[in-house]
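Example noted here:
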Amino acid sequence: MITITNRQGKHLSVVVEGLENAPAIIFSNSLGTDHGMWQPQVASLKQQFKVITYDTRGHGQSDVIADTTVQNLAEDVIDILDALDIEKAHFCGISMGGMTALWLGIYQPTRFYSITVANSAAKIWNEEGWNTRADAVIENGLADLVATTHTRWFSEQFDYQHDALAQRTIQSLATTPALGYAESCRALAQADLSTQIQQIQIPTLVIAGAFDPVTTVADGVFMQQQIQNSELAVIDASHLSNIEQPELFTQTLSQFIGSIQ
């Protein structure tokens, strides 16, 4: 694990694995998790790629940063690429990370071969809901969310209790700084890229979870219809589809990336 300093002078925790001179792929975690959620994908893809994972600001080992916007989340990715001297990469983000992917596709397309937008939406939930959740987390901590999160993250078909990565990911929510979580909630409250995503020209993969109650298949269909050079894959999973269906997720991503090079 290395630490890079972003343009705001704050620290981001980054992990680089795989082949030094291979094409780079960078993964961005969901709200309330950390870089470790990508373990199955890293294990598979590091045989042929330079694989970068990082803790989104306010999560894991990365600094909590006040007044965060989705633009800030995306600019952190550019700062990581710059620090690692990577001119261009594939990008895959899930949920909040998917919103980051969309922003990068709109405003920084020259830095990416492709974006993958997993279990996300051009607008996730609503402003009032996010701000209310942020206030509640600041006041009461994350314990209430931890107790119910499995109902949103995983489907009833998935035995999350006996899946080591699912348990570790739930634990990462329990250890996420409340202020970092709340800052991300407020960023998502303000984020709406619905009208801008038509501008995306680079190859885009949209992955939706058939049982996802948070970012629905309809959200995925909307993005696929708006983004010209895009395709949609629906996976039998809930919100964290890369953990619930790791092999299928990785295979879908690999085939998409393979079709570009």
Remarks:
- The chain has a mean pLDDT of 97.
- The first helix runs from residue 39 to 45.
- The two ends are 28 Å apart (CA to CA).
- The longest strand covers residues 11-18.
